[in-house]
């Protein structure tokens, strides 16, 4: 019998839907306080996940969910990077 690999699920902070971890964009607050996108999903630090959807990004930005989840002010450059990451997909 072949073992079935379990795909990790994460919750989008924009729409609150559970999705496969690979389908989401991770924003991480590193231990030294830097905020950046984590394309590998393995960077050390506190992470928050967003769907690759402009609607979810807009909802999360309007309600300050990234700030709440990560506990720090989010620089404008991070939002710009998120927008370009989402526009690519």
Description:
The chain is of the alpha+beta class. It has helices at residues 54-62, 65-70, 76-88, and strands spanning 9-11, 18-20, 24-29, 35-38, 46-51. The strands form 2 sheets. The protein has a 3-stranded antiparallel beta sheet with strand order 4-3-5. A two-stranded antiparallel sheet has the order 1-2. β1 and β2 form a beta hairpin.
* Biggest beta-sheet profile: 3 strands, antiparallel
Structural class by helix and strand composition? alpha+beta
Strand content: 15-25%
**Intertermini distance:** 37 Å
Q: What general outline do the C-alpha atoms trace?
A: globular
Task: Note the total helix count.
Answer: 3
Radius of gyration: 13 Å
Q: Portion of residues in helices?
A: 25-40%
Order of helices and strands: EEEEEHHH
Low-confidence stretches: none
């Amino acid at each position: 019998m072949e073992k079935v690999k379990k795909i990790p699920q994460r919750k989008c902070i924009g729409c609150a839907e559970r999705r496969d971890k690979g389908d989401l964009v991770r924003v991480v607050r590193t231990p030294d306080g830097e905020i950046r996108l984590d394309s590998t999903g393995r960077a050390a630090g506190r992470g928050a996940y967003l769907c690759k959807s402009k609607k979810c990004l807009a909802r999360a930005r309007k309600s300050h969910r990234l700030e709440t989840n990560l506990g720090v002010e989010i620089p404008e450059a991070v939002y710009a990077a998120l927008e370009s990451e989402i526009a690519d997909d």
